[in-house]
């Protein structure tokens, strides 16, 4: 009888833990995301949807800007995880590569702009503490980390784009291959 009771308690505790996690989301990240979405949509309406979309189309026309400037703006202004919503300005065929570039940049920006990925700030703080304990400054590392992050997201974006086009049977122009 004790074994059955212990199993039942362990079983329900799994769901209680899931419920606590869910409540953390409901009182934490979900309101933040809803407020950010409202603010960004309001700014887009104030500036003008057409203007914002024209600007985005101009910069996403070029792969270098599509995989550096757009993710940088998205991560800086919207932070993780809202930054992925800037994918709405990217043509469908480039969305996987945009996402890859964005997700790869949420950590390198943290040293200079901690708000961008507060959930992983502890990683940067651990590195910074180790450098400080060793007698080094953290500013130079933060700048180099940021620059290398931009280079890496460009490389990842271009590679993911090439892989996507290869796997979907498309050419780099996005058109279907003939026969």
Question: How many β strands by DSSP?
Answer: 0
Rounded average pLDDT: 86
Portion in strands: under 5%
What string gives the helices and strands in order?
A: HHHHHHHH
SSE class: mainly alpha
- Describe the biggest sheet? none
Gyration radius (Cα, Å) is 21 Å
CA-CA gap between termini: 68 Å
Query: Regarding quaternary structure, how should these chains be classified?
Result: single chain
Number of helices: 8
Low-confidence stretches: none
List keywords for this structure.
single chain; 8 helices; 179 residues; mainly alpha
Description of the molecule:
The protein is mostly helical. The chain is built from 8 helices and no strands. It has helices at 2-27, 29-47, 49-60, 63-66, 69-78, 95-105, 121-133, 139-168. The longest helix is centred in the C-terminal third of the chain and has 30 residues, at 139-168. The model has no long low-confidence stretch (mean pLDDT 86).
Quick recap:
The chain has 179 residues and is an all-alpha fold. It has 8 helices and no strands. The mean pLDDT is 86.
How are the SSEs placed, and which strands pair?
Blueprint: H1 2-27, H2 29-47, H3 49-60, H4 63-66, H5 69-78, H6 95-105, H7 121-133, H8 139-168
Helix pairs in contact: 5-6, 6-8
């Amino acid at each position: 009888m004790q074994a059955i009771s212990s199993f039942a308690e362990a079983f329900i505790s799994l769901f209680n833990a899931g419920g606590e996690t869910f409540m953390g989301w409901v009182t934490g990240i979900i309101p933040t995301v809803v407020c950010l979405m409202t603010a960004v949509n309001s700014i887009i309406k104030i500036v003008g949807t057409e203007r914002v979309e024209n600007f985005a189309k101009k910069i996403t026309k070029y792969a270098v800007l599509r995989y550096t400037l757009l993710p940088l703006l998205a991560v800086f202004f919207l932070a993780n995880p809202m930054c992925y919503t800037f994918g709405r300005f990217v043509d469908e065929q480039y969305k996987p590569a945009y996402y890859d570039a964005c997700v790869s940049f949420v950590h390198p920006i943290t040293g200079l702009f901690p708000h961008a990925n507060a959930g992983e700030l502890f990683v940067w703080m651990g590195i910074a503490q180790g450098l400080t304990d060793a007698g080094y400054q953290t500013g130079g590392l933060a700048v180099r980390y940021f620059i290398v992050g931009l280079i890496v997201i460009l490389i990842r974006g271009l590679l993911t784009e090439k892989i996507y086009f290869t796997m979907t049977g498309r050419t780099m122009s996005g058109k279907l291959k003939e026969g």
